[in-house]
Design brief:
By secondary structure, the protein is α/β, with parallel strands linked by helices. The longest helix has 24 residues. It starts with a helix and ends in a 16-residue tail after the last helix. The model has no long low-confidence stretch (mean pLDDT 94).
Length: 199
């Protein structure tokens, strides 16, 4: 996807720093939720991006490196499994997005957010349903968030080898459910998530 219509519209309206924001990790049973914010100063991009869920791990890694090289700036926000349990996954996702925007070197003057809701930001913003398929900056953010979260789960895999986190990244696969049945929950499991397969 090289279509930058959403961003170009805001450029014409006078906005300079337009951030796309997306998250990875709302559905897993374990680990953090990660959000990324990406600002491009030059469009169109010299490479195609897409929704991270449509890409292979190898494609995501290649694009992650290109995005980190080509983006004007990138911010990341991480919210732990403990906070997810304390505030619920929706609020944790909004918190991760807010942290991602706050970690940018400069404050964006407009933010596009994937989905229907937007976090509480004191910045002009717009939610775009399926934004990771429509906006280049959101698609780029989805790739950055996914790659960073996957790398975190690979580290957890070495810490908790019984659960094969490197393989399923904490999602409720059959192998993951079987590991929970056999070993119980580990430190990074989200206790607030109901697991139907265990009932």
């Amino acid at each position: 996807m090289r279509n930058s219509r959403w961003e170009r519209t805001k450029f014409r309206e006078g906005y300079r720093f337009i951030a796309g924001v997306d998250e990875a990790g709302r559905g897993p049973l374990a680990g953090p939720v990660v959000a990324a914010a990406v600002i491009f100063s030059k469009l169109p991009l010299p490479f195609d991006v897409d929704d991270s869920k449509k890409l292979t791990a190898k494609q995501r890694t290649r694009l992650f490196n290109l995005i980190m090289e080509y983006a004007h700036s990138v911010g990341v926000g991480i919210v732990s499994h403990k906070t997810i349990d304390e505030v619920n996954i929706l609020q944790a996702t909004y918190l991760a997005m807010t942290r991602a925007v706050a970690s940018l070197p400069e404050t964006p003057d407009f933010v596009f957010v994937d989905g229907r809701g937007v976090p509480l930001l004191s910045i002009p913003r717009q939610a775009i349903v399926k934004g990771d398929q429509k906006s280049v900056s959101i698609a780029a953010a989805s790739i950055v968030a996914k790659v960073i979260r996957d790398r975190l789960m690979e580290k957890y895999d070495r810490q908790f080898p019984d659960y094969a986190f490197a393989r399923h990244k904490g999602y409720p696969t059959r192998r993951h459910i079987e590991a929970i049945r056999r070993h119980g929950f580990c430190e990074i499991h989200r206790r607030s998530f109901k697991i139907k397969q265990l009932s």
